[in-house]
Amino acid sequence: MEDHCGKAGRSKVNRLLAKQTRLFSYIEGLQAETRVYYTLWQCGPELRILVSGEAGPAVRCTFPADMECRARNLLQYLYENAVMPSQAADVLADCCTVGQVEVLNAGC
Description:
The protein has helices at residues 68-80, 85-95; strands at residues 14-24, 34-43, 46-53, 58-64, 100-104. The chain is α+β, with helices and mostly antiparallel strands.
């Protein structure tokens, strides 16, 4: 599992707190087979939700470390509603009034 903390977590505690994977099967003419990953990271003094797929950009939302319950609830919401990375920035911007939402390059 790749560390998605980057500079914010260097020389501090970086750890994966939660990970869920949504599998989408191939449906001819409608949908390619793919996986979407929903992860929550502790990156030093902050928490980061990351929604990423096998291709395309990922979306990250950053929270203060004292908002772990809110971050876990948002992670569960994203997973249970099968929010794709392409939609995650808008959903997080609507739900995440204190966090910072970023769209990352593919493979980040």
